[in-house]
Write a structure and sequence with these properties.
mainly alpha
Length: about 210
């Protein structure tokens, strides 16, 4: 009588994974994943580095253009503060302008000081500090009043010059902020460039280590 043998158990199925479809082994999945991560990161770093480099260059150009334009336009006006010690620059009346005495109005800060602390003070002395619109309305109501007509012309010229000087100061502030932004972008560009160069030498070793340990 022949002996009955028990059937041998079937091998357990290999679970399927993202890199092992149908349970088949995929020995190259780990190296491809590591290299893909390194390549993606390097592309992103290079793109950001280019953006920072181009951006900092444009900001430096814009800042230089703005500051140079403000300086050249103010310099062409040939406006100067009164000399130190003169009656036109009385320390009691113009305490904040003593440091600019005798200097030419050729920067944004000087333009603001001249507009707000010199022109504005003189304009407040005309017709009791009334605005141009108020004096103009009074002149229209009394067209034969020569004094009012002269005051209207003075206020118009003074307010116009004051506004132009303040515009110059405003653009100088914008140009200065662009300069600070350019310096920040340039520092970011240099730091990222150093990181990219370091990664260029470090990434092959990292990828080789991951491939060896996978």
């Amino acid at each position: 009588m022949s002996a009955i043998t028990a059937p041998s158990p079937a091998p357990a199925p290999v679970p399927a994974t993202a890199g092992n479809v149908g349970g088949a082994p995929a020995p190259g999945a780990a190296p491809r994943t590591a290299l893909g991560f390194v390549a993606t990161r390097r592309v992103a770093e290079i793109m950001l580095c280019v953006v920072l480099g181009v951006g900092s260059g444009l900001l430096f150009y814009g800042s230089h253009f703005g500051l140079n334009m403000v300086h050249s336009q103010l310099n062409a006006q040939d406006i100067s503060f009164p000399a130190k010690g003169s009656a036109a620059l009385n320390p009691a009346e113009f305490p904040g302008l003593q440091r600019y005495a005798g200097q030419k109005v050729d920067t944004g800060d000087k333009a603001k000081a001249y507009a707000d602390q010199f022109i504005a003070v003189h304009l407040t002395k005309i017709d009791g500090g009334q605005t141009y619109s108020q004096v103009s309305a009074a002149s229209i109501a009394d067209p034969t009043n020569a004094a009012l007509t002269a005051d209207v012309a003075t206020l118009f010229k003074g307010q116009t010059l004051r506004g132009l000087l303040l515009y110059a100061w405003g653009w100088s502030v914008v140009a200065t902020l662009a300069l600070y932004a350019a310096i920040g972008a340039a520092l970011g560009f240099l730091i990222l460039l150093a990181a990219i160069v370091g990664d260029f030498f470090a990434d092959p070793r990292i990828a080789a280590h991951r491939t060896h340990t996978a």
